[in-house]
Amino acid sequence: MSARGPAGAGPAAIQLSRIMRPDDANIAGNVHGGTILKMIEEAGAIISTRHCNSQSGEHCVAALARVERTDFLSPMCIGEVAHVSAEITYTSKHSVEVQVNVLSENILTGAKRVTNRATLWYVPLSLKNVDKVLEVPPIQYAWKELEEDGKKRYEEQKLERLVTKQRNGDIIFPVFNPEPYTVGYSQSSLIHLVGPSDCTLHGFVHGGVTMKLMDEVAGIVAARHCKTNIVTASVDAINFHEKIKKGCVITISGRMTFTSNKSMEIEVFVDADPFVDEPKERYRAVSAFFTYVSLSKEGKPVPVPQLVVETEDEKRRFEDGKGRYLQTKAKRQVQMQPLTQQ
Amino acid sequence: MSARGPAGAGPAAIQLSRIMRPDDANIAGNVHGGTILKMIEEAGAIISTRHCNSQSGEHCVAALARVERTDFLSPMCIGEVAHVSAEITYTSKHSVEVQVNVLSENILTGAKRVTNRATLWYVPLSLKNVDKVLEVPPIQYAWKELEEDGKKRYEEQKLERLVTKQRNGDIIFPVFNPEPYTVGYSQSSLIHLVGPSDCTLHGFVHGGVTMKLMDEVAGIVAARHCKTNIVTASVDAINFHEKIKKGCVITISGRMTFTSNKSMEIEVFVDADPFVDEPKERYRAVSAFFTYVSLSKEGKPVPVPQLVVETEDEKRRFEDGKGRYLQTKAKRQVQMQPLTQQ
Amino acid sequence: MSARGPAGAGPAAIQLSRIMRPDDANIAGNVHGGTILKMIEEAGAIISTRHCNSQSGEHCVAALARVERTDFLSPMCIGEVAHVSAEITYTSKHSVEVQVNVLSENILTGAKRVTNRATLWYVPLSLKNVDKVLEVPPIQYAWKELEEDGKKRYEEQKLERLVTKQRNGDIIFPVFNPEPYTVGYSQSSLIHLVGPSDCTLHGFVHGGVTMKLMDEVAGIVAARHCKTNIVTASVDAINFHEKIKKGCVITISGRMTFTSNKSMEIEVFVDADPFVDEPKERYRAVSAFFTYVSLSKEGKPVPVPQLVVETEDEKRRFEDGKGRYLQTKAKRQVQMQPLTQQ
């Protein structure tokens, strides 16, 4: 790679780098998972927008449709440099799959660690008519198998998207004087007024901005529950069902659904309220599950207090969470060892 | 209303929560008063804009007209979660009164403290024609007395707004080689180019952005005077006489007017200069009095150096400040005990 | 370059990329020169800190000592992606020379333009003792001539650094009721309280943060003078004489020194006031000359009102500015054609 120009940054690759600052981290100096998710999404948006405009025709902006399950393999710290590199690995007729890798570099010691790997799906929306999905130019594959594998991933995520839509009616109700370690004890919400720098050229919120806010709420829920420093361990697949427009107020709410010995699962909802422009009803835009671990002062994972479930719904959600936990654990036996299992 | 979850977040209530970050605070780790004022105003703007658009008709954005005197009852620290809850408590034909409460929560210990209570007045301006004030839909009162009390508050603030208009001709002149502890020694000013994220959908500066800049200047004046860590103790009623448009340069200037044994009063002016778009004259948009206390390294209020007043104007302003100080002190005897009195 | 990991990001090269947001630009949609200078400096700081720590021994952070004259060759716009690539081109015993190139990419059309080229000098300061300058590991040169050219540049900048020190006693005095187009008419200053995210691991302000604030003041001076949209055309060599510590208040002041037919030269001073921690005297930390051009609504450079100089000092500074202007113009005849000459 030459240092002159975005060399190598052809249609299929890009790299973002940035020093991590105090505001990117929690008190213990660990960079928020949400900050990393935001950088990942920015890299994905750049590379897929660039690719979808590479053939002459109608201009478009690539909008985030889905992020596959993401593990945080290793923490990133203040003062380290985050390197986020993205590559297009599959294209269907109307969508782009982007693989992103995140590396942390300690520029004092030279130490480097892979901190994240993520897969994102983007859809090109016309710049003139945001409701029109354009066609994606096909990419070249080095081997035929790469295309076939990509197609399999494409079909799988398509199926999963259909299933998750059903969870969207759920609402988090406030609880008065909750008992310690119940769901109501730690549930939290925040609201955010969408500003211009949160948005794409279309005037809709960047997926990365939404994920950063979701991680913020999930982190507060986790810290309220276990009252220690906590850190994002993984994020389940996130589907972006509905776009969110500039000027909306978004409410991001989180509640704990499951605890294992050393991890907590938090469900997060994003609801948009387009109250000024068009008095449309408030709607559910995104939902996802975040998994957190609790850290000792030395930065080692420690046991978390068990979640006290009371209602039938809470018990059902706990069992569902346990299912996801065991499934992930089983998958990991044959793969590498991320943070939650240490 | 509980601090957990968006309790009662119906049309008449809203809650913002956010973790306080290193950039929100001074070196001692105390969150700037201006950061809290900005959050308070954002909550007020959302709830009153939502309410004023709740009936079909012309769309509007609620603009801040006035903030009543606000005490900072307790400091907020980095890592704590600020919960800002807002509720509409009175509506006149053309204005909305919003009550805001701020709670700090230490999510590690679970400790909570009320840090602020504030009352704000908003006016709905048409989205199509920003100079047109729309009618406010009336709210329902639980008791008739609530409406009568609200009306009394409405009449009082209307009267006060008229009086303060007269102070607006005043200008802060620079001083060469000022003696220590004189007015010229600590007076300060900053300029800010109004950017897109500072503004509402109308393209005018959010009242909260202006208040944050005012607190920034007042804090620098206070720190220059006593050369210690300082913290906002209270803000007198602020009237927003004139709107400030995107692209303006605003000059925020502050000078000390009065010192008691342990507090400093600083007068702050905001002048807008709309020099690019329309070569209109520079005008005074806002003015207010901020009160600060000086803190020891242990965070306890300590005596401040007495202000040296020289000119007749300075002496008159000192006496006026003393009047405000004594009046507030008298009121407090029958109420609670905020920070300045410790 | 592979998209996986900071490939090619060996000791000698790095690339930062970022989408330009509304907050990075003026009303006309052009990205502020200061935003670009800040990105350039971040790339330089990363690559030189990485290089200086590449040999075992005491850890250090590279501090910006000097930026050579920089031209803004082409504007960058909102929605474009900025690619900033940096490379180490020379090392002396105690300093590192970094060459930085900035490219703008329109990801919709695929158009790319070189917008900046810059040369920066860094000095490695020990992490344990910030006043101790460490030795720089030598780099390998592809040809012997590259080393000799580098040495020549090193000697030249060393000489120039000595000369500029003399300008530092100068102060900008306020003027009452200035006439249009005089120096006092447009001179401006802002103050900034240095926060944690402005600082390096040492707790000292990043050179890029300082340059961004300087560009902000210079831009306001230029806009006040000609009341149009303005854009940074070039920045003369900037020397960073003194470090600025976290918690300081810095005053950044600018005044116009010279106007040609279509350009304005603005002198900017940065003074630091370490009033809380250690009651040290206020000191001059940085000074520089910025050149701006005035743009029509179509984005073309237009004539600027001539600066009215009154005092002997103003006349002398105008002549000095004219000298710099003619010198640069002469140099350019044999080089490329940047924005100021159109």
Brief synopsis:
Helices cover 25% and strands 31% of the residues of chain A.
Q: What attributes characterize this protein structure?
A:
homotrimer; alpha+beta; 6-stranded antiparallel beta barrel; 5 helices; 13 strands; 25% helix
Structure description:
Chain A is globular and about 60 Å long. Chain A has five helices and 13 strands. In chain A, 25% of the residues lie in helices and 31% in strands. In chain A, α1 packs antiparallel against α4 (207-226). Chain A has helices spanning 33-52, 144-164, 183-186, 207-226, 312-333, and strands at 13-19, 60-67, 70-72, 81-91, 96-105, 112-126, 188-193, 229-235, 238-240, 249-259, 263-273, 283-295, 301-302. Chain A has a six-stranded antiparallel barrel with strand order 2-6-3-8-12-9. By secondary structure, chain A is an alpha+beta fold. Chains A and C meet through β1, α1, β4 and β5 of A and β1, α1, β4 and β5 of C.
What is the residue-mean pLDDT of chain A, rounded to a whole number? Answer: 89
Low-confidence runs of at least 5 consecutive residues of chain A: 1-11
What gyration radius of chain A follows from the Cα positions, in whole Å?
20 Å
Order of helices and strands of chain A: EHEEEEEHHEHEEEEEEH
Oligomer: homotrimer
Class of secondary structure makeup of chain A: alpha+beta
